[in-house]
Amino acid sequence: MSGPVVAIHQPQYLPWLKYFGKAAACDIFVHLDTVPYQRDGVQNRNMVKTHQGPRWLTVPVHASIDTTIADVTIAREHWANKHLKTLTQSYGKTEYFPTMRDELAPILESGFTHLADLNIAAVDWTLRQFGIACRQVRASELAVSGSKDDLVIDICRALGAAVYLSGTGARAYQDPTKFAAAGIQLRYQQFTHPTYRQAHESAGFIADLAAIDLLFNMGPASKELLARAAA
């Protein structure tokens, strides 16, 4: 069976490690920006570790219940300054934060008007920090249609996929026979969250934070830690 391994995920703000584990295991990573925005999810927020424990970093947005992710706009507030201040207070003493902050800050402060553009720019930067070279595509750039499995299969067909790499949570609702009929191998992501040295050790190790937590704490060693987690 020839053809790329395709993974699909909604654009998220400063996603967690498993998100990048999926990107590391595929050839083409599709930013699914054509589906409705999810309120109270992680499309506009994620957690970092402070001396008081985990804390949400939230991008204020304008979105109604039927707004697609691509159309969600960012509210005009000084959110970027607040986020950078929290990051500096939380990670300022880590070895790798100063350099990475200088690279990440312009992305957060760039004045993006749409959430998807901000999220994808930040994801692209994070992928480069991890040395992940998968091709990135926006679903809105493809001529595809349908919903749920049908949409996923249509995206895979549009990209000539041989394998669709799915998150494990999708087992509950996916129909493997549809993928088999389309000639697409359905594969589920393998991921074991790594443990590593974190700032604020007295708070204990906290998993499932934004992936920048690993980068700020471990720098170049992050690549190998993520590679092992995604193997």
Q: Could you characterize what this model shows?
A:
This protein is of the alpha/beta class. The chain has one domain. It contains eight helices and nine strands. The protein has a five-stranded parallel sheet, sandwiched between helices. A two-stranded antiparallel sheet has the order 3-4. Strands 5-6 form a two-stranded antiparallel sheet. Strand 8 (163-166), helix 6 (176-181) and strand 9 (185-188) form a beta-alpha-beta unit. Helix 2 packs antiparallel against helix 3 and helix 3 packs antiparallel against helix 4 (115-129). The longest helix is centred in the middle third of the chain and has 15 residues, at 115-129. It is globular, with a radius of gyration of 18 Å.
Quick summary of this structure?
The chain is 35% helix and 16% strand.
Q: Care to count the β-strands?
A: 9
Mean pLDDT across the residues is: 96
N- and C-termini, Cα separation:
21 Å
Computed over alpha carbons, the radius of gyration is 18 Å
Structural class: alpha/beta
Domains counted in the coordinates: how many?
Answer: 1
Shape: globular
Q: How would you characterize the largest beta sheet? A: 5 strands, parallel
Poorly predicted tracts of residues = none
Spatial ordering of strands, largest sheet: 7-2-1-8-9
Please bin the fraction of helical residues: 25-40%
The helix/strand order is EHEEEEEHHHEHEHEHH
Number of helices: 8
Work out the strand percent: 15-25%
